[in-house]
Predict the 3D structure of the following.
Amino acid sequence: MPGDDVERFLGALDPGDREDVRRRPRQEQERLAAAWEAELRDDAELDTLDELSPAAAEAEAAQRVLREPGDA
């Protein structure tokens, strides 16, 4: 469900970024959440980090999505 993905994505962000993303249109929030899910699923480095700290892996993936060109 897209709303759940957005809430999980927002939860992985630091407070400043979370507020920035919340001010964006809902469609943009859903796009970023989908990119975040793909990053978590597809990046092997995050798999290793996830084994040590799932929260850290989610936060790193969220930061990567926000650092993509055009998303800051």
